[in-house]
Amino acid sequence: MPHTQEKDFETAIEQDLLNSGYFQAAAADFNARLAIDETNFWAFLHDTQQDVLNEFIRLNPNDWQAKILSRLDRVWDKEGILHLLKNGLAVDNVRLTLFFVPPLANSPTNVAKRFAKNRFSVLRQVHFSVQEPHKSVDMAVFVNGLPFATLELKNEWTGQNHQHAICQYRSRDIHHALFKPARCLVHFAVDTQEVYMTTKLSGSQSVFLPFNRGNGHGKGNPLNPNGFKTAYLWQEILQKQSIAEIILHFARLEFDDARKKDLNKATLYFPRYHQLDVVRKLLFDVQQNGVGKRYLIQHSAGSGKSNSITWLAFRLIEVYANDEKPVFDSVIVVTDRKVLDKQINDNIRAFSNVKNIVAHAEYSHNLKNALESGKKIIITTIQKFPFIVDNIANMASKKFAVIIDEAHSSQSGTAHDNMNRAMGSVEESDAQDLIIQTMQSRKMRSNASYFAFTATPKNTTLEKFGEKQNAQNADGKPIFKPFHLYSMKQAVEEGFILDVLQNYTTYQSYYEIQKNIEDNPKFDKKKAQQRLKSFAEKNETSIAAKANVMLSHFISRVVQTKRLKGKAKAMVITQNIEMAIRYYQAICRLLAEKGNPFKALIAFSGEKEVDGISYSESQMNGFDDNKTKEAFDEDDNRILVVANKYLTGFDQPKLCAMYVDKPLDGVLCVQSLSRLNRSCPKYHKTADDLFILDFYNTTKDIQVAFEPFYTQTELAGETDINILHDLQHELDNVGVYELDEMENFVQRLFSGSPMSELDTLIQACAARFNTELNLEQEQKVDFKIKAKQFVKIYNHIACIIAFENVEWEHRYWFLKFLIPKLNVTDDKTVIDDLLKTVELSSYALAVSEKNHKITLSDETGTFQPSNQTMHGTHPDDEEKDTLDNLIQTFNERFAGWGGTPEEQKILLISIKQKITQHKDFKAFLHTQDITLQKAVLAKMTDHVMWEDRMQKQEMYKRYREDKALQQAFIHLMQQAINADYAKSP
Question: How many Cβ atoms sit within 10 Å of the Cβ of residue 329?
Answer without folding.
Answer: 19
